[in-house]
Hints:
Strand content: 15-25%
CATH architecture of the largest domain: 3-Layer(aba) Sandwich
Helix content: 25-40%
Shape: globular
Largest sheet: 5 strands, mixed
Number of helices: 15
Number of strands: 23
CATH topology of the largest domain: Rossmann fold
Radius of gyration: 25 Å
CATH superfamily of the largest domain: P-loop containing nucleotide triphosphate hydrolases
Structural class: alpha+beta
CATH class of the largest domain: Alpha Beta
Number of domains: 3
Amino acid sequence: MQTIPIFCRNIKTEVQVPYGMTLLEFLKKEDVKSENVFLGALVNNKVRDLTYQIHKPAVIEFFDYYSTYGRDMYIRSLYFLLCKAVHDLLPLKVKLHIKHSISGGRFCRLEQMDEPLTEELVKKMRNHMFSLVERDIPFERVGLPTPDAIRKFQEYGLEDKYELFKNRDRIYTSVYKLENTINYYYGFMVPSTSYLKTFGLEKYEDGLLLKLPSTKNINVLPKTRQMPKLFSVYKENKAWAEQLGVPHVSDLNRIVEEGDVLPTVLVAEAFQEKRIAAVADAIHQRGNVKMVLISGPSSSGKTTTCKRLSVQLAVHGYHPVQISVDDFFVERDETPRDKNGKFDFEALEAVDLPLFNNTLSRLIAGERVELPTFDFTRGTKLWTGKSIQLDDKSIMVIEGIHCLNPRLTEQVPDEVKFKIFVSALTSISIDRQNPIPTADNRLIRRIVRDYNYRGYSAVETLRRWRSVRNGEEKNIFPFQENADEMINTSLIFELGLLKPYAMSILDAVPENLPEYAEAVRLRKFLSYFKSIPEEKVPGTSILREFVGGSKFSY
């Protein structure tokens, strides 16, 4: 019997295994133990499901739900579980639309329903999903010639997948089956339904909320939170994308193929500018605003939003003064540290709060105040004599990740503040059942910007990303509903524009590094987009902050 050498990082041992053994069989044979259930594995730094057969020497590392890859796999499998429940319980014409993230879960709608969605129907669907879990049905991956896969998509009413795949340049496509239900979710599944023990399904707004386990404890469902402001922005932008006729990637690709993407680009840019102008109008109507506070996660386009909002405020006769919270960092030796002993630059205590509040209070009182500039290389504030004094028409536009946290400006009266949350809330979806995570949109932006302007490779950006996301969960998202207004900075065409930049940067990630798996995933994701030429994009676009050529100075 032919055997193959395998090094398993989980047990730090090399073993010989039979040719063709599956990863699941390997787990049982070698008795690889863990406190948590393994969902998949990295095989030579490529994500594989547990049905994967070992055919060549490899380094294997099994992962669970607490890995990014494991959580993605779990969520993807829940999507399919919900899809099967809809397929089993409702007429074939009813379409499941998984729209976007909200309250730690995914907001979904059932389209072409003959009757209103009721609590009773939601309970029936939830119970059916749990019955499927109890039955331990395997997720079967079947490789089909791509034309055959496309015909299957047509048979099952998956027109959006058909449109996306009809021009795919792959000979074979792997689809998944769950009994008599077929679908495609752009990644791997857990082995069977019994792995999906923790989830929820409840009525939310005018649709469903598919509740996901906590990122910290797979056995816990986070409490459902009403987030009316964020939900409203998502709803507005998703509806607008459908109105424009570009709800899915296949719709965008069709426009690109027809060679006339410029009108779509200009309309998308105009829609965003109109929203920024509306926020400026709201600030003006408030009347007594002295300070606009703008917060948002990494690569959400805060800096360009500040500049474009300042232009719109100037239309109303204001004299905008832009201030960055980052210039008020404490000295490097005073910077707080995280649990691993590393500098925690995203903690609120990394900001010199007394100095910041004193500066703002004196400016509002009409004093001339000197502002610092922070030297990140030396880790110290520089006092260069730059000073400002506000006049009757002055308004401060302040940008920083903590701007919605009341503690940042606790010494300033609330009535003079206007708070804004910005983020790239992706309006376009891959298809009806595969929304594009906003974090992926922002990560691709950041990879391009870090490479172009900060000298970071994709490896360095990917390595930092988990820490960045943890900081956002702690310091930004809990305060987003404090905003007076929200601005979505994503553009429906942007991933087509970013694709050629990101692909070349991601191609440089070496196969022998752990970040290779994420680079492969992002490259595959971007492969579904047709490229859009840079010259189609205006010089004032948010995207110029990442690819260059902006009319603004940074």
